[in-house]
Inverse folding.
């Protein structure tokens, strides 16, 4: 039997601090699962991991306008709070922190937390603009300070974001452990994403070719092919009815392009399917 | 009798966290006095305030290269660690955190915390370049995360910096109380500054005219003069043998110029005396 009580929903930073104070005073472990809502089983897997490891689990739900490069994308981003609260309750998380936009960015707000270097400039940084990751590192810094968790959980589906967050924690000394959890997929292979709900049935069929292209690359690498150009050419031929932004083979830690595949490599893809932008990735082992 | 034991000196972030853990677990109050060393009675007044209000007082000593706009200024900045430790011991502070530069900025460091808006763009921001306050907000964010104090103490001599830090704490939700303490002056009126040790006797005489200019402005405002131009013209005539960067009459909270003085106003001055750049300020009451 899964738990079906509605979790406690908190809307303000002050109330969050108050709710967390007893746990903190008791020296117990606080886990944070930061989300933009429209929760799915990928988020659920993060909550399950947090529930197993922490005394108190906070799920934040905040669609962060500062990390969207396009107003249309922000507006179309799915918002499903009632269903989200049920999923959080089922996962047995303790608190939902779901602030309004002006609680996070009140009038006069003027701070920005940014990283420099290849981690934020390549792949998503190059295609969505540098403002995307500045928006991510700013809101995550705020959430970290609001919640002061011991551990925070992110999904490997956003592999670059997880690396960026890890560098943020290192560079600014947050003293928070970052756990990156495996991508969860539907049985047909599609990586779970809040954006999938916007796909029509035919778009969904086309979206499957993203994972298929990653699988082809994985097979080639496993079979001994070492030349990135050969692999990318073969992998991208399977894409059908999607508008490719990038298919890249990069170092899994630095995200810099590799010239020959003699170690594990990250294959990362971004493509638009209709009006929905999707990303996926896979670690390829020679 | 003042205490003369040498304080505990900590060089690494890990050791700092370990040293603070018991105090934090006990729910006791931690106070941080961030400094760049070359400590004087202005710093001492911050430590005294922290000692009176907190269970554990940390004094950080770190000459932050990222907030210096000129390499020559960074190189010339006084470093007097042995004397600093004696002053900290006399003040009864508990811990000195004095990390090396590469402990704070290790290889691969790439983060920056910045504010936007008039607070960082005017006065010091305009004259030292925007990088100055970005350097301040970055290192202070790091020190806050390393130490996680309940309260942090800054001097009003750096009035703009104190306002910038207050906005940083608000915007990024640090949950730290900022206390700004009065400027301490020598009997002749010179505001205490680590840079004063670099003044020759004749430069020191000239440096006194900064405070004299502020006093003239204060007298005019107290006497009913309301026109900023009139006040600035009269105040700056007393400056002698110094190279004025700015003399400004601004709103004490926003630092925006005032057009008529009908409320308390901040008079702020920056000037070079020989090769030493000095700042000072005074709140003027009509």
């Amino acid at each position: 039997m899964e738990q079906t009580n509605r979790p406690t929903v908190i809307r303000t930073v002050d109330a969050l601090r108050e709710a967390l104070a007893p746990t903190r005073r008791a020296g117990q472990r606080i886990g944070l699962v930061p989300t933009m809502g429209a929760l799915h089983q990928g988020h659920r897997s993060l909550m399950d991991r947090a529930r197993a490891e922490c005394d108190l689990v906070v799920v934040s739900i905040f669609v962060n306008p500062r990390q969207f490069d396009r107003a249309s994308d922000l507006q179309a981003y799915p918002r499903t709070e009632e269903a989200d609260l049920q999923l959080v309750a089922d996962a047995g998380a303790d608190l939902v922190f779901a602030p309004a936009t002006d609680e996070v960015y009140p009038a006069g707000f003027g701070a920005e937390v940014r990283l420099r270097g290849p981690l934020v400039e390549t792949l998503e940084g190059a295609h969505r603009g540098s403002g995307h990751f500045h928006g991510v590192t700013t809101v995550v810094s705020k959430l970290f300070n609001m919640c002061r968790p011991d551990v925070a959980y992110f999904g490997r589906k956003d592999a670059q974001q997880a690396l960026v967050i890890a560098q943020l924690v290192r560079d600014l000394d947050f003293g928070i452990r970052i756990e990156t959890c495996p991508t969860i997929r539907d049985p047909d292979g599609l990586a779970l994403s809040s954006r999938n709900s916007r796909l029509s049935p035919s778009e969904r069929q086309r979206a499957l070719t993203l994972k298929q292209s990653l699988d082809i690359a994985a097979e080639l690498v496993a079979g001994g092919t070492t030349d990135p150009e050969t692999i990318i050419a073969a992998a991208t031929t399977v894409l059908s009815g999607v508008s490719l932004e990038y298919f890249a083979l990069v170092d899994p830690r630095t995200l810099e392009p590799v010239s020959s595949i003699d170690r594990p490599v990250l294959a990362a893809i971004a493509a638009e399917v209709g009006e929905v932008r999707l990303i996926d990735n896979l670690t390829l082992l020679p």
Notes: Chain A touches chain B through 28 residues (CB under 8 Å). The longest strand of chain A covers residues 265-273. Chain A has eleven helices and ten strands.
